Protein backbone atom coordinates (compact mmCIF):
# COMPACT_ATOMS: atom_id res chain seq x y z
CA UNK A 1 0.00 0.00 0.00
CA UNK A 2 2.83 2.32 0.81
CA UNK A 3 4.44 1.55 -2.52
CA UNK A 4 1.20 2.61 -4.27
CA UNK A 5 1.16 6.01 -2.55
CA UNK A 6 4.86 6.46 -3.22
CA UNK A 7 4.27 5.85 -6.97
CA UNK A 8 1.43 8.45 -7.08
CA UNK A 9 3.62 11.00 -5.28
CA UNK A 10 6.45 10.52 -7.80
CA UNK A 11 4.06 10.97 -10.76
CA UNK A 12 2.58 14.17 -9.22
CA UNK A 13 6.04 15.64 -8.58
CA UNK A 14 7.10 14.86 -12.16
CA UNK A 15 3.99 16.65 -13.56
CA UNK A 16 4.71 19.74 -11.46
CA UNK A 17 8.29 19.91 -12.80
CA UNK A 18 7.09 19.63 -16.42
CA UNK A 19 4.45 22.36 -15.85
CA UNK A 20 7.02 24.66 -14.21
CA UNK A 21 9.46 24.08 -17.07
CA UNK A 22 6.76 24.95 -19.64
CA UNK A 23 5.83 28.15 -17.74
CA UNK A 24 9.49 29.19 -17.59
CA UNK A 25 9.90 28.61 -21.34
CA UNK A 26 6.84 30.79 -22.09
CA UNK A 27 8.13 33.62 -19.88
CA UNK A 28 11.56 33.52 -21.50
CA UNK A 29 9.95 33.69 -24.97
CA UNK A 30 7.95 36.84 -24.15
CA UNK A 31 10.97 38.58 -22.68
CA UNK A 32 12.93 38.26 -25.96
CA UNK A 33 10.56 39.46 -28.71
CA UNK A 34 11.38 38.90 -32.37
CA UNK A 35 12.97 41.98 -33.98
CA UNK A 36 11.03 43.22 -37.02
CA UNK A 37 13.08 44.39 -40.00
CA UNK A 38 11.62 47.46 -41.70
CA UNK A 39 10.79 47.06 -45.38
CA UNK A 40 11.80 50.28 -47.16
CA UNK A 41 9.49 49.57 -50.07
CA UNK A 42 6.49 49.22 -47.77
CA UNK A 43 7.48 52.42 -45.92
CA UNK A 44 7.34 54.41 -49.16
CA UNK A 45 3.99 56.07 -49.84
CA UNK A 46 1.68 53.94 -51.93
CA UNK A 47 0.70 55.47 -55.27
CA UNK A 48 -2.93 56.25 -55.98
CA UNK A 49 -2.04 56.68 -59.64
CA UNK A 50 1.17 56.57 -61.66
CA UNK A 51 1.97 58.30 -64.97
CA UNK A 52 5.11 57.82 -67.06
CA UNK A 53 7.10 60.74 -68.48
CA UNK A 54 9.35 59.45 -71.29
CA UNK A 55 12.56 61.45 -71.73
CA UNK A 56 14.92 59.32 -73.81
CA UNK A 57 15.09 56.01 -75.64
CA UNK A 58 18.88 55.95 -75.29
CA UNK A 59 19.97 53.25 -72.81
CA UNK A 60 23.02 55.29 -71.70
CA UNK A 61 20.95 58.42 -70.92
CA UNK A 62 21.30 59.71 -67.35
CA UNK A 63 17.50 59.66 -66.99
CA UNK A 64 15.37 57.68 -69.41
CA UNK A 65 11.96 58.25 -67.83
CA UNK A 66 10.16 59.57 -64.76
CA UNK A 67 7.29 57.98 -62.86
CA UNK A 68 4.89 60.60 -61.51
CA UNK A 69 3.17 58.98 -58.51
CA UNK A 70 0.05 60.56 -57.04
CA UNK A 71 0.46 59.84 -53.31
CA UNK A 72 -2.15 62.13 -51.71
CA UNK A 73 -5.11 64.24 -52.76
CA UNK A 74 -7.28 66.42 -50.54
CA UNK A 75 -9.94 69.09 -51.00
CA UNK A 76 -10.24 72.08 -48.66
CA UNK A 77 -13.46 73.71 -47.44
CA UNK A 78 -13.72 75.61 -50.74
CA UNK A 79 -13.41 72.35 -52.75
CA UNK A 80 -9.95 73.34 -54.00
CA UNK A 81 -7.99 70.14 -54.58
CA UNK A 82 -4.33 69.89 -53.63
CA UNK A 83 -2.42 66.90 -54.99
CA UNK A 84 0.94 65.60 -53.81
CA UNK A 85 3.21 63.76 -56.20
CA UNK A 86 6.44 61.81 -55.87
CA UNK A 87 8.58 62.03 -58.99
CA UNK A 88 10.85 59.02 -59.36
CA UNK A 89 13.71 59.51 -61.83
CA UNK A 90 14.82 56.30 -63.56
CA UNK A 91 17.74 55.20 -65.66
CA UNK A 92 16.22 52.23 -67.46
CA UNK A 93 15.03 49.93 -64.62
CA UNK A 94 17.06 51.57 -61.85
CA UNK A 95 15.65 54.44 -59.76
CA UNK A 96 18.26 57.20 -59.53
CA UNK A 97 16.50 59.90 -57.46
CA UNK A 98 13.14 61.17 -56.19
CA UNK A 99 11.47 64.54 -55.57
CA UNK A 100 8.11 65.57 -54.11
CA UNK A 101 5.86 68.38 -55.38
CA UNK A 102 2.46 69.71 -54.31
CA UNK A 103 0.02 71.09 -56.87
CA UNK A 104 -2.98 73.21 -55.90
CA UNK A 105 -6.08 73.57 -58.08
CA UNK A 106 -5.71 70.11 -59.56
CA UNK A 107 -7.69 69.66 -62.77
CA UNK A 108 -8.95 66.16 -63.50
CA UNK A 109 -7.48 64.98 -66.79
CA UNK A 110 -4.24 66.94 -66.41
CA UNK A 111 -1.18 65.40 -68.04
CA UNK A 112 2.58 65.24 -67.46
CA UNK A 113 5.23 65.89 -70.08
CA UNK A 114 8.99 66.43 -70.02
CA UNK A 115 12.10 67.14 -72.07
CA UNK A 116 15.83 67.51 -71.68
CA UNK A 117 17.51 70.94 -71.88
CA UNK A 118 16.61 74.51 -71.02
CA UNK A 119 14.89 74.98 -74.39
CA UNK A 120 13.66 72.69 -77.14
CA UNK A 121 16.78 73.56 -79.16
CA UNK A 122 19.15 72.54 -76.33
CA UNK A 123 21.44 69.52 -76.46
CA UNK A 124 19.30 66.45 -75.71
CA UNK A 125 22.10 65.07 -73.49
CA UNK A 126 21.71 68.08 -71.20
CA UNK A 127 21.65 67.54 -67.43
CA UNK A 128 18.61 69.85 -67.26
CA UNK A 129 15.15 68.29 -67.22
CA UNK A 130 11.99 70.35 -67.73
CA UNK A 131 8.71 68.89 -66.50
CA UNK A 132 5.26 70.31 -67.20
CA UNK A 133 1.89 69.43 -65.70
CA UNK A 134 -1.52 70.73 -66.67
CA UNK A 135 -4.78 70.22 -68.51
CA UNK A 136 -4.11 69.93 -72.27
CA UNK A 137 -6.23 72.86 -73.45
CA UNK A 138 -5.85 76.60 -74.03
CA UNK A 139 -6.41 78.89 -71.08
CA UNK A 140 -5.35 76.42 -68.37
CA UNK A 141 -2.46 77.10 -65.99
CA UNK A 142 0.51 74.75 -66.20
CA UNK A 143 2.94 73.94 -63.41
CA UNK A 144 6.54 73.91 -64.67
CA UNK A 145 9.67 72.51 -63.02
CA UNK A 146 13.34 72.73 -63.98
CA UNK A 147 15.52 69.97 -62.51
CA UNK A 148 19.26 69.37 -62.73
CA UNK A 149 20.54 65.81 -62.45
CA UNK A 150 24.25 65.05 -62.60
CA UNK A 151 26.54 62.55 -60.89
CA UNK A 152 23.63 61.09 -58.95
CA UNK A 153 22.56 64.46 -57.49
CA UNK A 154 19.10 65.90 -58.19
CA UNK A 155 18.21 69.57 -57.66
CA UNK A 156 15.00 71.49 -58.30
CA UNK A 157 16.53 74.62 -59.83
CA UNK A 158 13.40 76.63 -60.62
CA UNK A 159 9.62 76.37 -60.80
CA UNK A 160 6.98 78.62 -62.33
CA UNK A 161 3.50 78.74 -63.84
CA UNK A 162 2.53 79.33 -67.46
CA UNK A 163 -0.63 79.84 -69.49
CA UNK A 164 -1.32 80.24 -73.19
CA UNK A 165 -4.56 81.06 -74.95
CA UNK A 166 -4.61 81.77 -78.69
CA UNK A 167 -1.33 83.70 -78.68
CA UNK A 168 -1.92 85.49 -75.38
CA UNK A 169 -0.54 84.34 -72.08
CA UNK A 170 2.33 84.17 -69.60
CA UNK A 171 5.45 82.01 -69.68
CA UNK A 172 9.12 81.93 -68.66
CA UNK A 173 11.85 82.51 -71.23
CA UNK A 174 15.40 81.23 -70.69
CA UNK A 175 18.31 83.23 -72.11
CA UNK A 176 22.08 83.01 -72.39
CA UNK A 177 24.06 80.12 -73.84
CA UNK A 178 21.09 77.78 -73.52
CA UNK A 179 21.59 75.82 -76.74
CA UNK A 180 24.53 73.81 -75.39
CA UNK A 181 24.58 70.87 -73.01
CA UNK A 182 25.34 72.37 -69.59
CA UNK A 183 25.90 76.14 -69.40
CA UNK A 184 27.41 77.42 -66.15
CA UNK A 185 25.38 80.65 -66.24
CA UNK A 186 22.01 81.58 -67.71
CA UNK A 187 19.05 83.89 -67.13
CA UNK A 188 15.29 83.78 -67.27
CA UNK A 189 12.43 86.25 -67.26
CA UNK A 190 8.65 86.07 -67.13
CA UNK A 191 7.05 87.23 -70.38
CA UNK A 192 3.39 88.28 -70.43
CA UNK A 193 1.36 89.36 -73.43
CA UNK A 194 -2.23 90.43 -72.87
CA UNK A 195 -4.92 92.58 -74.51
CA UNK A 196 -4.96 96.34 -73.99
CA UNK A 197 -7.60 98.07 -71.90
CA UNK A 198 -9.56 99.07 -75.03
CA UNK A 199 -10.11 95.35 -75.82
CA UNK A 200 -8.50 95.73 -79.22
CA UNK A 201 -8.00 92.36 -80.88
CA UNK A 202 -5.10 93.68 -82.93
CA UNK A 203 -2.80 94.94 -80.18
CA UNK A 204 -1.66 94.09 -76.70
CA UNK A 205 0.83 94.91 -73.94
CA UNK A 206 4.01 92.90 -73.50
CA UNK A 207 5.73 93.00 -70.11
CA UNK A 208 8.89 91.46 -68.68
CA UNK A 209 9.23 90.71 -64.97
CA UNK A 210 11.19 88.63 -62.45
CA UNK A 211 14.54 88.69 -64.20
CA UNK A 212 16.60 85.93 -62.54
CA UNK A 213 20.20 84.79 -62.90
CA UNK A 214 21.48 81.26 -62.33
CA UNK A 215 25.09 80.26 -61.66
CA UNK A 216 26.67 76.87 -61.03
CA UNK A 217 28.73 76.56 -57.85
CA UNK A 218 30.33 73.11 -57.71
CA UNK A 219 27.41 70.83 -58.53
CA UNK A 220 24.75 73.15 -57.08
CA UNK A 221 22.82 75.93 -58.80
CA UNK A 222 22.27 79.29 -57.12
CA UNK A 223 19.72 81.80 -58.35
CA UNK A 224 19.35 85.51 -57.75
CA UNK A 225 16.37 87.75 -58.46
CA UNK A 226 17.60 90.78 -60.41
CA UNK A 227 14.37 92.79 -60.51
CA UNK A 228 11.54 93.56 -58.08
CA UNK A 229 9.41 90.44 -57.65
CA UNK A 230 6.11 90.38 -59.56
CA UNK A 231 6.67 93.94 -60.87
CA UNK A 232 7.26 94.59 -64.59
CA UNK A 233 10.58 96.26 -65.47
CA UNK A 234 9.70 96.50 -69.18
CA UNK A 235 6.40 97.32 -70.86
CA UNK A 236 5.52 97.98 -74.48
CA UNK A 237 2.42 98.10 -76.63
CA UNK A 238 2.68 95.90 -79.71
CA UNK A 239 0.30 94.56 -82.32
CA UNK A 240 -0.44 90.86 -82.22
CA UNK A 241 1.51 90.23 -85.43
CA UNK A 242 4.51 92.30 -84.33
CA UNK A 243 4.83 90.42 -81.09
CA UNK A 244 4.72 86.98 -82.67
CA UNK A 245 7.05 87.97 -85.52
CA UNK A 246 9.78 88.29 -82.88
CA UNK A 247 9.81 84.53 -82.53
Key descriptive features of the protein:
16% helix, 4-stranded antiparallel sheet, alpha+beta, 247 residues, 13 strands, 49% strand, single chain, 9-stranded antiparallel sheet
Can you walk me through this structure?
- There is one protein chain.
- The chain has 3 helices and 13 strands; from the N terminus they run ααβββββββββββββα.
- By secondary structure, it is α+β, with helices and mostly antiparallel strands.
- β10 (185-195) and β11 form a beta hairpin.
- The radius of gyration is 32 Å and the shape is globular.
- The strands form 2 sheets. Strands 5, 6, 7, 8, 9, 10, 11, 12 and 13 form a 9-stranded antiparallel sheet that branches. A 4-stranded antiparallel sheet has the order 1-2-3-4, with no helix packed on it.
- Helices cover 16% and strands 49% of the residues.
Question: What secondary-structure arrangement, pairings included, does this model have?
Answer:
Layout: H1 2-31, H2 40-43, E1 49-54, E2 65-75, E3 81-91, E4 94-104, E5 111-116, E6 128-134, E7 142-150, E8 153-165, E9 168-175, E10 185-195, E11 203-217, E12 220-225, E13 234-239, H3 240-245
Antiparallel strand pairs: 1-2, 2-3, 3-4, 5-6, 6-7, 7-8, 8-9, 9-10, 10-11, 11-12, 11-13
Amino acid sequence: MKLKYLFILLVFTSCQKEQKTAQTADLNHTQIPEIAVADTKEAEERSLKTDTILLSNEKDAEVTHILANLIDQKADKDSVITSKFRLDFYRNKNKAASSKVSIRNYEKGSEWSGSNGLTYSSDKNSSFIKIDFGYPACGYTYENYLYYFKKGNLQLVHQWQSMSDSGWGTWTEFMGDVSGKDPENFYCKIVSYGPTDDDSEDSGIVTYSDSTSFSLKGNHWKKKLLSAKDKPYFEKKMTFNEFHRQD
